[in-house]
Amino acid sequence: MALVVQKYGGSSVADASCIKRVAQRIVATKKAGNDVVVIVSAMGDTTDELLDLAQQVSPLPPGRELDMLLTSGERISMALLAMAIANLGQEARSFTGSQAGVITDSSHGRARIIDVTPGRIRGALDGGQIAIVAGFQGVSQDTKDITTLGRGGSDTTAVALAAALDADVCEIYTDVDGVFTADPRIVPAARKIPRISYDEMMEMAACGAKILHLRCVEYARRFGLPIHVRSSFSSKEGTWVVSDPDSEGKEMEQPIISGVAHDRSEAKITVVGVPDKVGEAATIFKTLADAEVNIDMIVQNVSAATTGRTDISFTLPTSDGSTALTALKKIQERIGFESLLFDDQIGKVSLIGAGMRSHPGVTAMFFAALADAGVNIEMISTSEIRISVIVGQDDVDTAVGAAHRAFDLDADQVEAVIYGGTGR
Amino acid sequence: MALVVQKYGGSSVADASCIKRVAQRIVATKKAGNDVVVIVSAMGDTTDELLDLAQQVSPLPPGRELDMLLTSGERISMALLAMAIANLGQEARSFTGSQAGVITDSSHGRARIIDVTPGRIRGALDGGQIAIVAGFQGVSQDTKDITTLGRGGSDTTAVALAAALDADVCEIYTDVDGVFTADPRIVPAARKIPRISYDEMMEMAACGAKILHLRCVEYARRFGLPIHVRSSFSSKEGTWVVSDPDSEGKEMEQPIISGVAHDRSEAKITVVGVPDKVGEAATIFKTLADAEVNIDMIVQNVSAATTGRTDISFTLPTSDGSTALTALKKIQERIGFESLLFDDQIGKVSLIGAGMRSHPGVTAMFFAALADAGVNIEMISTSEIRISVIVGQDDVDTAVGAAHRAFDLDADQVEAVIYGGTGR
Question: Domain of A134: which CATH number?
Answer without folding.
Answer: 3.40.1160.10
